[in-house]
Structures are given as structure tokens and as C-alpha cells.
Amino acid sequence: MRASGGLPHFSRAALAIVGAALLAACATVAPRGTGDLGIVIERAAGRVHVVDTTARASLARIDGLGDLSHASAVYSRDGRYAYVFGRDGGLTKVDLLESRIVKRIVQAGNAIGGAISQDGTLVAVSNYEPGGVKIFSAQTLELLADIPAVSGPDNRPSKVVGLVDAPGQRFVFSLFEGGEIWIADARDPRAPVLTRFANVGRQPYDGTVTPDGRYYMAGLFGEDGLALLDLWRPESGVRRVLPGYGRGEQKLPVYKMPHMDNWAHAGGRAFVPAVGRHEVLIVDETGWTEAGRVAVAGQPVFVIARPDGRQVWVNFAPPHNDTVQVIDAASGKIVHTLKPGKGVLHMEFTPRGEAVWISVRDEDRVEVYDTERFARLATLPVDKPSGIFFTARAHRIGL
Q1: What pairs with residue 355 in β-bridges?
Q2: Distances in Å between the alpha carbon of 159 and those of 42, 111, 294, 318?
């Protein structure tokens, strides 16, 4: 039957039937957890893939994230939202379940990563240009605090690197030009309290924190060695670790700066990349002394421990960036060498470490390997993939 205007007319009974059908259709969409989700960065396209680590599949692609060179991400504590830090200063909140951008802001001219606070309410971003750290509400991305990174008698600005979260609602970071390490206590996020440590070493280039949140370590580019801060006893100051580990040896040109943003911590020992050398250094964490060196295929970039700590996986700067080597943490020996393809940029383990995902930029694919048998499990086509970040990071300090 039609109404006088020619439009269909439905009785209440018919509408009830339609409503019931819609409810039934909605009921077929199963609720979905986020524990096996993650994102893969497509750096050139300014896009991310939402991936499922159980199905080893891409679920969706999300465009519009700007310049994603050197992009990284952290997660809300429920694992639903990724906060993506772009090189263009962009900060983008992404909803993994709805595969959409919630909000995007450009908060600086050049940024280098970020962190999320212990309680998940704050997101901090470290900047190259104009330098400093900005703190935002994780819910709304409202700017809460702007911390300029200046040091010395002339208040010279510095690029900020190695930003991590630490227990006590703190953020810890390093000043590259200033040679300092700062702690920002953000319990009052609009008025963070700063503690500064000067003369920690020349040009700290990156930093990381132990999985228990106790020790912050900064790698030094301007000299051999590492700077170590005990966050349980910050009043003790920063001390130098492995000073002059390359003394008397000829330095090699550095083709790509190594990263320390995923602490390789295994069996009471830390595995760290040696800057400009074909070595991974082993540090005994009881006394923070050198416990050994592993000769590797090239200049290490990422040195990452499998979640159980038994293996340490290493990728390399050019011209060895087609290679990945696996170190047995107990023996300190290389147990396997893989050749995933040209341009290996990043590696990420599944939450319990049975598989590792590897981005192979120059061959437009992500490879998934079994970490026991080193067999290839899956290949995903991805345009110029770089960083891979899974939601398990939401529950780990420093990630």
C-alpha cells in the first residue's frame, strides 16, 4: 500500500519485523578483542595496515597519516587505539576496531617518536624541530604541557631523543646537542616537574628503559660508551657504562643510526648495538660491565630479544640490510642467518614470541617467520613497509 505522497507506507508490524531482522544481522558481527592486532607502517604512502597476528593477514588500510618516515606507535591500555608519531610532527589517533582515524594533529615541524604514560592518560612526543617534548591528553589530544629542551648558559635548543615512559607517571628523555638526560614527572600534566642531569656524555642518540622500568640507558654517538640512570635512585646521578669500548680501534663510517627503543634484555644481560662497528655488545646487568661481544654481519640497527629472552634478533645498516642474524642469548653465539630480502627495516615479535614479523621495504612485503624452525610462515604484500607495532606493547614499560 502507498501513502498519498507515493512513498511506501509500512504498518507497525512490518517495521517491527524489519527491526528484528536488523538486530539479528548485527548479532552476527562477533565482538572482537585487540590482543592479536597491530599496525604496519607504509612510510611512503602515509598509510597503515591493521593486521591480525593470528590470521597473519591484513584487515584494513587507513590513509591520511602524513609523512611516516621513521614513524613509531604506542597503544592505549585497552589496545584499541594506536597513537602514531610521524616525522612531519603529526600525531594521529587510530581506532583499530573501526579502522579509522579518530583525530590527527600536527604538533611540531619534525618529530622522532613518543610514549604513553603509566596510566594511559597522557601521550608525550619528542621533537627535533623545534625540539622539546609536548604532552597531550590521550583521549582528546589536547595539549597539556610544552617542555622546551634548552641547556647551557645560552639556553641552546636540542633535539630530543630516546623518550620513554617510566613508573610514577614519568617520562625520561635525552638531549642530543645538550648532552643531558631529563625526567619529567607528569603527575600534574599541566605543570610537569623536571629533573635534569648534565654532562652525561656527547650526543646521546637514543634511549631505552629496562622492562621493570628501573634503569634508563642512553647510547652515545659522540663517544664510545653508554649513559645509565637508576630511576629508583635518581639522586645518585648518571654514570658511564662501557666507556671507551672501542678504544684503539679504527672507527667505521656510520651508515644508519642504531636504535635502542626495544631493550634486548635476556638472562640478566643486555644486548646493545655498537655504534659504527660490526658488533653487538653484551652487558652484565649486575655490575653494568662488558660481558662479551658478538661479531655480526654488519653495523647493527635493531637488536631485539624474543619475549622469552632466549634469542636476540639483529638487523643491519646498508649494505648488509638484506640480512637478519639470530644470537642465542645463553651462549652468545649466532645460531642462524636469514636473508629475508633487500631493505629489512624492522622486526616485531608476536606477544609470546612464536613468530616474528619482518618488514622488507625494498621488496614491498612483510615476512612472517617461525622463531624455532626459522621457516617462513606467511608473506603479506605491503607498500614500502617500515615499522611494525603490535598491541602487546600496551602492557610493556618503555614501549
Answers
A1: 370
A2: 25, 9, 31, 25
Distance between CA 237 and CA 215 in Å, rounded? 12
- Residue/partner pairs of 332-338 with CB below 8 Å, 24 or more apart: 332/282, 332/292, 332/294, 333/294, 334/294, 334/296, 335/311, 336/374, 337/297, 338/369, 338/374
Q: How sure is the predictor about 219, in pLDDT bands with cuts at 50, 70 and 90? A: confident
Write the pLDDT tens digit of every residue in 8-65.
Answer: 444 555 555 555 554 544 445 578 999 999 999 999 999 999 999 999 999 999 999 9
Question: Do 254 and 243 meet the contact criterion of CB atoms below 8 Å apart?
Answer: no
Whole-angstrom Cα Rg for the chain:
23
Domains of the chain: 107-250 (2.130.10.10)
Assign 94 a pLDDT band (cuts: 50, 70, 90).
very high
